[in-house]
Amino acid sequence: MSEFDADVIIVGAGILGALAAYRLAAKGKSVMILEAGPRVSRWRVLEAFRNAPVKGFSNFYPEIPGVPKSSGGRYSDQYLENVGPMKWDPGYLRLVGGTTWHWSSAFWRLLPNDFKLKTLYGVGRDWPISYDELEPWYTLAEQITGCSGNAADDQSGHAGQSFPPRSAPYPLPPEQWSRYTKAVATGFDGLGYHFIDEPHLRATQTYGGRPACAGNNNCSPLCPIGAMFSGDMAVALAEEVGARVLPQTVAWKLELGPGRRIAGVHTMAHDGTKARRTARAYILAAHAIETPKLLLMSGVANSSDMVGRNLMTHPSLIYEALARDEMWPGRGPVQQGSVNDLRDGQHRRFHSAIRYSSNNRVPNPMIAERLIRQGIIGSELDKRIRHDSARYINFIAGTESLPDPTRRITLSNRRDGLGLPTPRIHMDMDDYARASGNRIASDFSRIDRAFAISEALGDRTAWRLPAHPMGSTIMGEDPAVSVVDRDCRTHDHSNLFITSTSVFPSAAVVNPTLTGAALALRTAELVSRET
Amino acid sequence: MRLHVCILAAVAALAVVPTDSAALPDGALIARGKYLATAADCGSCHSMPGRLPFTGGNAFRTPFGTIYSSNITADRKTGIGAWSDAEFLRALRQGIGKSGEQLYPAFPYAEFTGLSDRDGLAIKAYLLSLPAAEAWIPQNAMRFPFGNRATIRAWKLVNFRDSRFVADPSVSAAVNRGRFLAGTLAHCNECHTPRNMTMGLDNGHALAGGTVDGWQAYNITPDRVSGIGRWTSADIVSYLSSGDLKGHAEAAGPMAEVIENSLRFLSRDDLEAIALYLKSVPAARGPEGVSDRTSFGRPDPDRLTFSAAVPDPDHPVGRSLYAFACASCHGLDGRGLPGRDGRDYPPLIGNSITGAPNADNLVQTILHGAYRRDRGGIEYMPPFDNNSRLSNALSDDDVAALANYLVRQFGDPAAATMTADHVARLRRGDAASTLADVTELALGGLALAIGAGALIFWRRRERSS
Known about the structure:
heterodimer, A: 531 residues, alpha/beta, 6-stranded antiparallel sheet, 17 strands, B: mainly alpha, 3-stranded antiparallel sheet, two-stranded antiparallel ribbon, 43% helix, 6% strand
């Protein structure tokens, strides 16, 4: 009998942890995934969503006193302590499958220049690895999950040849654009921008057991038919090749052993029952808040004092308006297409990159609420709901944060249902992102004219912080200012790795999951050779 | 009359049977053999994923044990490369192997026996034209006493007649062609005809329905209640050519394979001939069922209250399961949804599986989903079995409750008798047979009796000596 419970223990059964487990188990390693939350059936989640009086983002996912989410329930709403200038809900779940139960599955590669912000533009940090080193893993991640996209696009936004370089085409063809998306694309193209396809994980034809998208327009918070890849599917892949998942198992302490290696992980069941599990190597994949929280609770991997620091996201401004003509949003998938023209270039010396991503949601509830507040009722309300909803345009102007050690997660004095400290978040946005505001405002005005807007909605100057947490266990060559090295191995402990968006040294302006997946597969490969 | 028969035969021969294989150049012979082999669907049994085509290795779990299909590529060691023409025809038409051994009738030589020399050798020519692949197959794992191939002789006495196809002069050339295609080549009766006590075909109830791998192969006689009498010829052709009769039937399970690998490649004329033939066989009324399988179903009257806030107090789980596990594709009203490229999500109202007299195929479809490749792409419904990758796995209780809701709402409510135990049995794929059990018991008893007799005899001899 082995002296260890497994070759590798992974903390967190989300998409990144499961992909790492899949790679390791496929190579014959015994893998144990510790997941704080429960398993769920898709139909039960849909039932809870349909029955929820308020259709929130997270509120219909399981609400457990000992395993709070970042928000969405009477325990979860008390979980995070926000002490900074900007209140932030990083929008994560804790259950088998993780946060990608509710996402829009945008699956972008970083650009080669995103890895070299410091060298090229004099801001932020460089990655210790290059795009070329990560490229094969990008391709593998796209193939395992079944990514749909247009390989001919210049995703750097300069309307050139296919870019960034790819060793294989996308495994699935791009989606057809809905009428709304085509109208938005035309509008942006008329301004001299180039509206391109957004790669994503909705099946455009049957792939890997997923049916093709049927246009439920519910991607976030839940795909009712499983056409959109979510973390539970990565878990299923890992289990098919022998990985074991232990749900309802909260990892709360990493135990240090001889040679500054991790000797075990201590866990608690939801009723508080304790256990200790051991492996040759440990991978943390508990997303960018819970991962540093575990390290801080354990007092490990932090000789740099960078654990929890450098929290980044994509501060965004939201454009909402009613066009003169009917746009018909809300049919088809919730996100299709993006304007990447400002994604890279010399402007990044002075202000952050900007990306405009089209949002295709059903606006009726918000429109109805707005009209009712204006005192409109009866058949006039009916008419106006139809009229306004059909003309609603919405897109997001996303920017990039730079790593700043004062933006961080630490441990608060609050305790969750298991008696563990909850996260204390100090979050803000920097001037680098704010400085993009002028350009964004000017573009917003041009869009107003392009669509002959009758009415602007919402507050287009209010910065929001979306659910893309990054940076809190930052990657770097210098152990004095970083937590993990180029292979995502912690500098301090040779058998402790982190596969999470928490390792990113730069945020760029695209959703982080694909890069996280590529890193997870690459690190898993390395770990498989060492265990 | 004789001239009439000759003309009929000649027309039939032109359509299906080549006049003289010696006169056909090799290319034409192989092409003909390919078409015949496709109609006979060699691939469904002799090919499988993970192995090169036609190298066999497919496991068939029968009540008599597990039989593996053989390698029929041109490999001389492991395939049929060293077989003579006579040996090949003998296997095809009499169920006897190269070394004279009896072949298990899982290989449908009871139907292929109808093939002419020319057609049989055309098939051989086609198989030998494919890449030879050396590939061994696993040993059969037979239940006692069926490991002894002498038992096949007994089976053949009752269930096999070595006879070539002969056109019936009293029906049209097209119906004869249909009978040849369906009866001899595509061997529809192997699945669609019920079995007798000796597991042979009960030809008195031809095409009146059978089971295969836990799936029902439905009654395809023209009976208007138990069969497909209400289907037009065009309906039958549509289904056979694509697996899809819009609004009513989608092939799943073993039939989906048959369509995908075989029937969709037949010519329109040949499919029409099969349809005509099916319309000509005696209508067989089954013991169950009050109405055609596609004649049931209505939208749930309370579909606006599908949320669990107002559950149906009598049947809470099944109805909720439908609303949240099925209706996003099949519609809250059971009318299905339009899909891309004309590939609609099928309605359950008027559906030939929900409307069947027993719900086995419905349970199988829920558990295994459906996967069928056709010209345009792939028809796909995900599985809800324990191997679901989409967090869709349903328990035996849930599947039974869901099946009963579906049958009550979209089928004949009298058929809503599914139990969790039966779901479990279907999931396990138990292949039951009274004959196999009885034979085993009987022979076991016989062995005991012989053993006891021998013991008594021995002791008597000892005492007397």
